Amino acid sequence: MSEDGGVPTRVRILDTAERMLQVRGYNGFSYGDVAEELGITRAALHYHFKSKAELGQALIERYAARFSAALDALDETAPDAAAKLRGYADLYLDVLRHDLMCLCGMLAAEYRTLPEPLQASVSAFFDTNTSWLRGVLEQGGAEGSLRLLGSPDDVAAMVLGGLEGAMLITRLDGDVARFSAAADRLLNGLVPA
Amino acid sequence: MSEDGGVPTRVRILDTAERMLQVRGYNGFSYGDVAEELGITRAALHYHFKSKAELGQALIERYAARFSAALDALDETAPDAAAKLRGYADLYLDVLRHDLMCLCGMLAAEYRTLPEPLQASVSAFFDTNTSWLRGVLEQGGAEGSLRLLGSPDDVAAMVLGGLEGAMLITRLDGDVARFSAAADRLLNGLVPA
DNA sequence: GTCTATACAGCGATAGAC
DNA sequence: GTCTATCGCTGTATAGAC
Question: What is the DSSP letter of A56?
């Protein structure tokens, strides 16, 4: 009686490793940890991902693709730039509600210890986010739903950094309400009085 | 000819390990790394700090003490709450200029993998910072040098998280000017128009 | 205070049977 | 696709000589 619920082993590995990476970091979990939780051996793991770096690469790519899809959805459904920003902050809130750190935020901390390809993928994730934010901020300035008081680049850096950092600190005591309040305060500074 | 410049080995160990911790994280450096850089053996290291956890504890305590002293200095020299906040952001800027992450911000990412005593010390560091910030924000509200638009607790969380997060992301590409601009934008939102 | 030597567990990874 | 077995290396930590 396999307990995989019809889910391919490759996906079960990704799910388990993803959670471990978001909780403990890249240097804080091992093939042994993942294999044990799945009830398979390390050798079986190496069949699906021949190295830990390759597994890490697949994790970033899946995470980034999901995030991109969420940004696309916001572009289609949010009525204005201010609503897009709220939706963006809610993406972070969802992750935090699962008691997890942003996968790429975690990798950002460990950046200097990562294999080069992973470094490039992490950087690309944040470049994508920054570009999207910059576009939203420019749109908000143009349509009047936002008031920037700074260059779109700088404000985008503030929003992205602010959300990642609030996540990082909130995870120490799990006070999600405080994260939510801090994020609101951050974004309220961008809404016309 | 010892190259210690009169600096006790214990301090040289702390200095080297501190830098490695701020660059690579607690799980990203080893006794072997530190010993090699200092030209001593791992066994000698164990004489000064009998376990890695004890070394980590000493690192947090020294870092927290330094930070506290810097906050005391700000309390004595800054003319008003707004100036204290600028000085606070400059503390982060100084760390970033050395291409380092905040030691406790790094440990916050790895929090779930840390020995319990280290977790407690990291939490205490952020509690101290949050308390100080709350005091400054309340002072600023009272004297009129700041306009909060939110509870001191929530604004303190926003400032602390914003600075830690901006640091985390900035370290990917080393764009210190962007950090500085984002921090300015963050604090400018607290200055009366 | 630092060394050599060693213990022992864990790591990522591979070969080859089934 | 998963297993057993094994490799070589690194990790933290300890004992005892100097």
Answer: H
